[in-house]
């Protein structure tokens, strides 16, 4: 999966972050091997990019920013390994998952190890505010993960419930990435608040787009077979909207029940076709756009024209991306 | 399981810690339920006791000490829930485990939630040293847990390898509990170093005694069927010593292979008898005593006669306990 290197200026610093990510996971042989497997699978490194961008609003210091950027990417990675255990996923980013190449237990401890390594690096920064913000986000993330399990195949869930879940699961960590970049370099607190708002809204749009891609993308684009969410019973926004369509609701519920009964080990193309026939895709796209607009709005009170333009570009990229 | 309330003086403060432990786990309904189940199963609360004792060597402040004691007990609890997933354990402390009452996935996220809650509380303290010490210990713990998986049924492992594993798995967190109690109240660094040494050696003895109890205790005493370690393939010190006995080695290896082949779903009383016939139990007891002596030795440079006497009592309790 392609790293998000839209910005020539950041490339050198992002290369350094990448190198520090590799350095961070040294330890026991097996843990190093499983963590390396995860790192090599790549990723957009969206959180480190946001940290560095946030750092542009204070006295930019790569050493300080690295100690936030690397932990945030590690926390994201650790949550993915634990997610794969829950989702019983065999591939992610086009690579075998740790739980599939090794097993669930090794995946669980790999996640624990990566979480701990993240903390070891971030605690090198003396600012207690950073640790408080980060630990609160981790609590919310773990609640969001549990909510996801509980909502599997819950076809009665509201749009609001979906929003709360993706807020915890995705948006908060992205919000915190933007915010902590600024906090790490002692930026004006007004800026870090606006960056949080920007990140939160971009994060919401990002997850909606992720859920759309799972329905509309190709395996090559998304690194795993499309329809994975439906197979796992992860009821996403386009599905909730599709279930509100009187003509689609009946047959879609029928399909979802069948998929549930077969534990997702079946063809899901009928369900996907039904969703695409409804207004679900379009309505979800519209909501993602509204979040992007809110994100852009949050930028208005920030200085630094150039970094703002880059943040705008990322926001637009999020809803147009195909990976 | 009985709380370690040997000290009238600590009882009131330990009641407060207990109350804060219960308060700490509020959150999503299901996570609250699973965490509550864990808390209610009890435990000796050894780590909080050590934190409070460490706090006696500086300006004792229960509010500060709570913010170390509660997180340390939570980290211990979280590691136990994840352990139960690995060990496929149905009971612990005489109660059903989370993975058994709910399932492995819920146990995994319960652990993640409790880890995050621990961090949320400890980050209320501004002292970066505390966070650095704690995160390093968490990294080591997760490495120790992975080592344990890798050493399952490894009958060729050395005593040294066993020591390294229990150091990471148990002794470091106990060492850090003693140390951080002192650090939290700004005790003389000389004292916190000695407390670390005390805790480390008590922790080693504690784990050896735990492993002995698994072989020699009754189900009522230890809250789970004896021989659980052997069934899981966890090769403990008495077993390693027993394997050094020329007469015992052959039949014991044969039994361990049989248990491995049956995935531990069999009677292990022959193996236990063989170990008891060897000098393994006695030699392990002797080593535990040597660690206790080192722990007592570490106390010699500390002031406060009364707290020292209490710490001596705990050290002696560790090798004599039957729960």
TrEMBL record, chains A, B:
Entry keywords, A to Z: Magnesium, Metal-binding, Transferase
Glycoprotein as UniProt keyword: no
Record's keyword annotation contains Transferase: yes
PROSITE patterns: POLYPRENYL_SYNTHASE_1, POLYPRENYL_SYNTHASE_2
Cofactor(s) in the UniProt record: Mg(2+)
Swiss-Prot/TrEMBL GO biological process terms: isoprenoid biosynthetic process
GO molecular function: metal ion binding; prenyltransferase activity
UniProt xrefs under InterPro entries: Isoprenoid_synthase_dom_sf, Polyprenyl_synt, Polyprenyl_synt_CS
Family: Belongs to the FPP/GGPP synthase family.
Name of the protein described by the UniProt record: Heptaprenyl diphosphate synthase
Record organism: Paenibacillus antarcticus
Taxonomic path: Bacteria, Bacillati, Bacillota, Bacilli, Bacillales
